[in-house]
């Protein structure tokens, strides 16, 4: 019971997958979770690893994960699970918006509520860790990502309110990465469904085509490496006094500065031009 344990959601790919190794290298025991635990089968086994099924949209799955962790000295969790619903708001259905919030916001809140009592039980004052992964798009908005933008704005609001409520007892760390080179972007088109068909004959048809053609190329050229991102998060988690907010990536830093400095009309003009919205 001397080992400190931390649970991470969304470990099948990207930041979550790399975070498992980064935390283990710093001496943490890690509870790695995914909706399909078979995707975690290739993680190096060890006494410092436990693999669990966890669907953040399923109350029974969350409750089962809590029970499976009761024998551990679990003192923290990382809410990393999420996906990006891309599409112009005019074409986005209510069900698509609802699913985005169910995973990125309601699921995050459900995990937080379920695990906080266990953290309080196991952690000394200031030792616990609540880590909420948002995005630079939680501070600013871009075209074609209204649903994702809104969900990440909500994550920031929840994290900042939670810090005001419990931060003196349990540190709350808000992570805001920029573009990350991972399979996250491959999941974007999977979430589209029949959106390209809905876009036919609308002003967004060419915009979506341009997005599909250019986005991966831009990501590979400018995005931050998921492994490096995970190392920075693990370092912040392991610090004696973790930061309140961790911004990762030059794009996240400079985009925030640009939005704060530029007049709104110029900022919007630049974004429209970048996305082909003339």
What does this structure look like?
This protein is of the alpha/beta class and 278 residues long. The chain has a single domain, classed as NAD(P)-binding Rossmann-like Domain (Rossmann fold, 3-Layer(aba) Sandwich), CATH 3.40.50.720. It is built from ten helices and nine strands. Helix 3 (94-122) links the parallel strand 4 (74-79) and strand 5. It is globular and about 60 Å long. The model has no long low-confidence stretch (mean pLDDT 92).
Query: Based on CA inertia axes, which overall geometry fits?
Result: globular
Pattern of helices and strands = EHEEHEHEHEEHHHEHEHH
Query: What's the rounded overall pLDDT mean?
Result: 92
Tell me how many strands there are: 9
The unreliable regions are none
Q: What is the CATH topology?
A: Rossmann fold
Strand content: 5-15%
The level of helicity is: 40-55%
CATH architecture: 3-Layer(aba) Sandwich
Strand order of the largest sheet: 3-2-1-4-5-6-9
Largest sheet, if any?
7 strands, parallel
Radius of gyration: 19 Å
* N-to-C CA distance: 60 Å
CATH superfamily: NAD(P)-binding Rossmann-like Domain
Helices, by number, come to 10
| CATH class category name | Alpha Beta
Number of domains: 1
Task: Provide the structure class.
Answer: alpha/beta
